Amino acid sequence: METASRRLAILAEGTLEFHHGKTAVSLLRYRPEDIVAVIDSENRGRTTDEVLGIGGDIPVVASVDDTFAMRPDALVIGIAPFGGGLPEQWRREILAAIDHGMDVISGLHFMLADDAEFAEAARAHTVKLVDVRRAPEDLQVATFAGHRPGARVVTFVGSDCAVGKMTAALEVTQAARHMGLSAGFVATGQTGIMLEGEGIAIDRVIGDFMSGAMEGLVTRAAERYDWVFVEGQGSLLHPAYSGVTLALLHGSAPDAMILVHPPTQTQIDSYPIAIPSLPRLIRIYEDAAAWVKPARVAALALNTRDMEEREAREAIRAAEEETGLPATDPVRFGGEVLVKAIAEYLVEGRAPTPAAH
Amino acid sequence: METASRRLAILAEGTLEFHHGKTAVSLLRYRPEDIVAVIDSENRGRTTDEVLGIGGDIPVVASVDDTFAMRPDALVIGIAPFGGGLPEQWRREILAAIDHGMDVISGLHFMLADDAEFAEAARAHTVKLVDVRRAPEDLQVATFAGHRPGARVVTFVGSDCAVGKMTAALEVTQAARHMGLSAGFVATGQTGIMLEGEGIAIDRVIGDFMSGAMEGLVTRAAERYDWVFVEGQGSLLHPAYSGVTLALLHGSAPDAMILVHPPTQTQIDSYPIAIPSLPRLIRIYEDAAAWVKPARVAALALNTRDMEEREAREAIRAAEEETGLPATDPVRFGGEVLVKAIAEYLVEGRAPTPAAH
Predict the structure, then answer these.
(1) What pLDDT digit, counting tens, does each position of B61-104 carry?
(2) What pLDDT is attached to residue B107?
(3) A141 in contact with B at a CB cutoff of 8 Å?
(4) Taking burial as the number of CB atoms within 10 A of a residue's CB, which of A20, A251, B145, B208 is the most buried?
(5) Which DSSP string corresponds to A342-355?
(6) CB-based contact (8 Å) between B25 and chain A?
């Protein structure tokens, strides 16, 4: 991936305010040193810290043209819109970046490099078009061969899309490394790939090869790391994306799962499907895993972003009581609780129990 | 689909004997009048009836060259190998067909039209390369909007791949039509598409769009028919294909399911996963359906191909006793029992009960 050590401008037009700009927010959280500007005309003149509470004094500007003073060398398409298409109004922004000699890094379903106008412009200005969501050509059908014995694979699953599975996995990976463990993060979506520098956007893979793609990613990671934390996608309850979620679950063949859920969310976003209780959610994921290989949900990562701290602590305690599992919000309170829970369960064989707070 | 009213030669090299040539066998069963020859050098000189017990006196020959005397106008690639690639030795057979002015119809993952040598040869001889597995370009994310009220959607699910879900769905559709019902078959795999003339090979669709592709197929079929029978794919127990199966299930959003299983099969083909009892299989599919929309397994279609008739009748009775559901082998005994069971359940609201034999 062509995103290491860069000066990045992030196109996040109209998406910052409500945290819909998942890619933008994640890059600001985990790679702020590489970001020179964020484009969102509604918030122009402010800093990302003022708008989002992260990223310090990185300026928010109105257009690609306004970033040129900060000498960016690449434009990142910083949103993942429903369905993954390319909003037409962005075309001229992308062309402006290419004309200015910037690479363009995109996580859209729409492949920039396959667009005649973009491809021609990129050739003329000798810049790169990086479609991180493009699936590799050499994928295989899953073999169910299993990963290296001794490595432990933990897959993050969730109640819905965009509940914080990637962020939880990143925080837990970081915490594990701080605790001295050999830990790797497996990126399965465009934002994770932009952050990690490798991975496969599993929702972009052809059905027959999804599970095999996951198996390949996890098997390779398990050769390098003792602890492999796998970014989840979608939800088994999601009418549009459940197939991707199950392929990811069965292909990653985890030894344990961590369930991610925002306590204030009661329904699948944009669909009339109620999110069931935590015990039922856990049961759903454990049942589905067991169809091919049993794995327990060993801990809960609650996303308490929209709660006061006191409320968040109460929600965590309530979730622990309801499920009997250790829980925390790894963004707010760090991922150590989850690493310890997983290690006690998978290494020492102790049943997961609520953390001491 | 370019397969209506044709003179077809089917390439089934090395696959006839053990029924691995699913496409060949299905075309011979449901479109024998369109088949002029089958290519399988191991069985050359025999008839398809002698080799397979179907298709009458359609000759089996050794190569594409040997079919020319029967004036074929298209070559069908009649197998669906593991992973969907193109065996190299078939390249010269396909080129021989093109050179002879035949169209080539393929259900492989390997896209003939994207291969430079085939594309060039097809252009030179003005023949068509029809890749039935190619996904449409204009797919959408599923909306979960629901199909036309009054139409009933029945999805076929199975214990494994290649257990007869397509055949059961075709037999039930035929039986429903014979009983005077407005019934349509929704093809979701390459063979079904070759038989039906339309459909989408769902295992070839990109993850994010699988469920939406199914929703589109089923919604359109429910505009035209009161009874919509959906060909299933894979199995929820299959480590490589379960994601496709779940996307098909949730995208088709059925009102009821029919479970297909060969009583003699105890394990997922090529994978160390035991097939559980029928009641547990039913529970798995009903649980998974209920995550987004409840649907019952209302009947069983047993594939008794490898059993004597007496054995088959016993297996059917045993399955009925074990599950409390009506069961039959629709290929052997006709699909009426299943149509009646589904109609009683969905129209009259009567709980499914074993058929009278």
Answers:
(1) 999 999 999 999 999 998 766 666 687 778 999 999 999 999 99
(2) 87
(3) yes
(4) A251
(5) HHHHHTS-PPP-PP
(6) no
Which of B115, B155, B250 should we substitute to test contact with A (largest number of A Cβ atoms within 10 Å)?
Answer: B250
B141 neighbourhood in chain A, CB within 8 Å: 82-83, 240
Report residue A1's pLDDT band, with 50, 70 and 90 as the boundaries. Answer: very low
**Sequence-ordered alpha helix ranges (H) in chain A:** 22-30, 48-52, 90-99, 116-124, 165-178, 190-196, 207-224, 242-252, 278-290, 309-323, 330-333, 336-346
For chain B, what are the domain ranges?
Answer: 8-131, 152-346
Q: Do B142 and A272 lie within an 8 Å CB cutoff?
A: no
pLDDT band at A83 (very low <50, low <70, confident <90, very high): low
Largest CA distance in chain A: 61
Same CATH fold assignment for domains A8-131 and A152-346? yes
Class of domain A8-131: alpha beta
| A152-346 classified as CATH 3.40.50.300 | yes
Assign A90 a pLDDT band (cuts: 50, 70, 90).
Answer: confident
- Whether residue B105 contacts residue B132, with contact meaning beta carbons closer than 8 Å, is answered with yes
Residue B101 identity:
G
Query: Which pTM value belongs to this model?
Result: 0.93
Residue B1 has pLDDT above 50, yes or no: no
The one-letter code for the residue type at B56 is G
Residue with tokens 């005309």: A41
